[in-house]
Specification:
2-oxoadipate dioxygenase/decarboxylase, single chain, globular, dioxygenase activity
Length: 470
C-alpha cells in the first residue's frame, strides 16, 4: 500500500479542483488553454529569460484558488483541511477598506511555506471570512440572523476533519485514506444544487454581493481558480479576441520596461449560473446568480518592507495624478509614468537598494578577475559583491497577494456597490486576531522571504569562505 506525502496530496487536490471547476465554469477551461498558449509563446520569444521567475513547468501548472467562509469556526475548520495538504496560513488581508464597494471580509492565504515545497507544487487558496460582526455593514438584527444561519450549516463533515488532522500529523496518508480525504475535500468545495432562500439571499445582497455569496447559501464553493501567466497583457488581449468579456483593467503594477514586481491580476467577468431558488411562498423555481469568475495572475519579485513602502507611495502618487486629471484618466498610463520615475530599472539596483528579496549565486569569472579567485578569510559587503558582479541576484518570487488588487477583482465582478455606514467604527482585525481564529500562527510573508534570503547569504559566505555583511 503506497503512502502519499503532503505535496502529493496537494498536487492531486489542485488537479481535482481544477477538473471540477472546469466542469462548473467551462470558460475556466478556455482561460487555462489560453494561459498555456501565452506561456509557450513567451518562452519561444524570451528563451531562458522567460523562466527567471519560475520554470515553465511550474508556472504552467500553478494555480491559486479562492473560497469564502462565514465564521471563525468555519475558518478554523478550513485551516485543518488545508493543513492536510501542507498548506499553512500566510499573510493577513483586510478587504473592507480596500475598495469603495462593500466587501465585508478579512482574509489569509493557505500555501506551502518552504521553497522546496513550493517548487514541488505551489497550490495556494486565498480564503476570506465574512466580518459579520462589523456594524458598518450589518445591523445587530442582521448579525444575529447571520450567526444563526451559519451555525446551522456544516461545510466540512467530521470525517473530513479527522482525516485531515491525521494527514497533517503523519505528514501524509496511506492510499486508501488519501483517496477518501481527497474525495471529501473536493466535494466540500463543489457548487451545491440545494435551493437558495431567495428572500434571505436578497437581504444580504442589498448589503454586499460578497456577503450573500458567503452567508446566503448552505455550502461554500470555489469562487475562482487562477492560472499563472508570464505575459498577462497578452492573455488579456487573447481572451477579449475570443469574445470573453474581461474586467476593465489589469489590477496591480503596470506593464513597464523594468523588473516585474509583486503581482498583476485580472479576470473575466462573473458569468450567470443556473441556481434553484426557494421563494417566500414555498415554491421552488430556477434562477441565475453571478458570483463566480475566472482570474489570472502574473507574479513578480517580492519586495522588502522598504520596497513595499515605495510601492505604496507610487500607488498614492498614481491616485493623485489621476485625481488631477493627468494621463487622460487612464490608470495604467499614469502608473507607468510613476514607475519610470520612482522604481529602479534593474534587478541589480533593486538588490543594492534593499528594495526586493533575492537569493545569490557566485560568478566564478568575476571572482577570479576582481579578487584573484578567492575571498577566503576576508570580510566583504554584499553590496560590494553585487556591484563587482561576484554575487549574482536571483529574484525571489512574490507568493502572496495585494489587498487592493483582490478588492479590485471583487469589485469589478459585483452587480452593485452594496451599502456601508462609515459613521460607525469597524471591528478590529489584524494578523494576531486571524492567528487566533485559524488556531495556528499566521506567518508574516516578509519573514518567510527574509529567511530565504538570509539562508542564501549564509550559503554564499560559506561558498566564498568569507564573512558577508548585509
Amino acid at each position: 500500500m503506497s503512502f502519499l506525502e503532503l505535496w502529493q496530496l496537494r498536487a492531486e487536490f489542485a488537479r481535482r479542483l481544477s477538473l471540477m471547476y472546469g466542469e462548473e465554469v467551462p470558460a475556466y477551461n478556455t482561460l487555462v488553454e489560453v494561459s498555456t498558449e501565452v506561456n509557450e509563446d513567451f518562452l519561444k520569444r524570451k528563451g531562458a529569460e522567460a523562466e527567471r521567475l519560475g520554470s515553465i513547468s511550474r508556472v504552467t501548472a500553478e494555480r491559486h484558488g479562492a473560497i469564502r467562509v462565514g465564521s471563525a469556526k468555519e475558518m478554523s475548520q478550513v485551516a485543518r483541511v488545508f493543513a492536510a495538504f501542507g498548506m499553512h496560513p500566510v499573510g493577513f488581508y483586510d478587504l473592507r477598506d480596500a475598495s469603495k464597494s462593500s466587501v465585508p471580509v478579512v482574509s489569509t492565504a493557505f500555501r506551502p511555506v518552504d521553497p522546496d515545497e513550493l517548487a514541488k507544487n505551489p497550490f495556494r487558496v486565498f480564503t476570506s471570512m465574512l466580518a459579520a460582526d462589523d456594524p458598518r455593514f450589518f445591523s445587530p438584527e442582521l448579525q444575529e440572523q447571520l450567526r444563526e444561519f451559519i451555525r446551522a450549516r456544516t461545510l466540512f463533515p467530521e470525517e473530513l476533519l479527522e482525516l485531515a488532522d491525521k494527514a497533517a500529523a503523519n505528514a501524509g496518508l496511506e492510499a486508501d485514506e488519501a483517496g477518501r480525504l481527497l474525495d471529501l475535500a473536493t466535494a466540500a468545495f463543489k457548487l451545491s444544487d440545494d435551493p437558495v432562500d431567495y428572500v434571505w439571499y436578497k437581504k444580504l445582497e442589498a448589503v454586499s454581493a460578497v456577503a450573500s455569496d458567503i452567508g446566503g447559501v448552505t455550502t461554500t464553493h470555489i469562487n475562482h481558480l487562477t492560472p499563472r501567466v508570464l505575459d498577462i497583457d497578452d492573455l488579456y488581449a487573447r481572451m477579449e479576441a475570443q469574445g470573453i468579456t474581461m474586467i476593465d483593467e489589469i489590477q496591480g503594477p503596470p506593464r513597464w520596461d523594468g523588473p516585474d514586481i509583486l503581482l498583476r491580476q485580472t479576470s473575466f467577468r462573473a458569468l450567470s449560473e443556473d441556481r434553484i431558488f426557494r421563494f417566500e411562498d414555498g415554491t421552488v423555481a430556477p434562477g441565475e446568480l453571478r458570483v463566480r469568475f475566472g482570474e489570472v495572475e502574473q507574479r513578480g519579485i517580492a519586495l522588502t518592507p522598504a520596497g513595499r513602502d515605495l510601492y505604496d507611495r507610487m500607488v498614492a502618487e498614481t491616485d493623485r495624478r489621476l485625481a488631477a486629471g493627468e494621463g487622460n484618466g487612464v490608470r495604467v498610463d499614469v502608473a507607468r509614468g510613476v514607475w519610470e520615475e520612482y522604481l529602479p530599472r534593474t534587478e541589480k539596483e533593486l538588490a543594492v537598494q534593499k528594495l526586493a528579496y533575492f537569493t545569490y549565486s557566485v560568478d566564478e569569472d568575476a571572482l577570479n578577475s576582481r579578487y584573484g579567485g578567492s575571498l577566503q578569510g576576508r570580510t566583504a559587503s554584499l553590496d560590494e559583491l553585487i556591484e563587482n558582479g561576484v554575487a549574482v541576484p536571483e529574484p525571489i518570487v512574490y507568493e502572496d497577494f495585494l489587498p487592493r488588487s483582490a478588492a479590485g477583482i471583487f469589485q469589478s465582478n459585483l452587480t452593485d456597490e452594496g451599502t456601508r455606514d462609515d459613521t460607525r467604527t469597524g471591528t478590529d482585525y489584524d494578523i494576531s486576531v486571524m492567528s487566533q481564529i485559524v488556531g495556528r500562527p499566521v506567518a508574516d510573508p516578509n519573514e518567510l522571504y527574509q529567511r530565504q534570503q538570509d539562508a542564501s547569504m549564509h550559503a554564499l559566505g560559506e561558498s566564498l569562505g568569507a564573512d558577508i555583511t548585509g
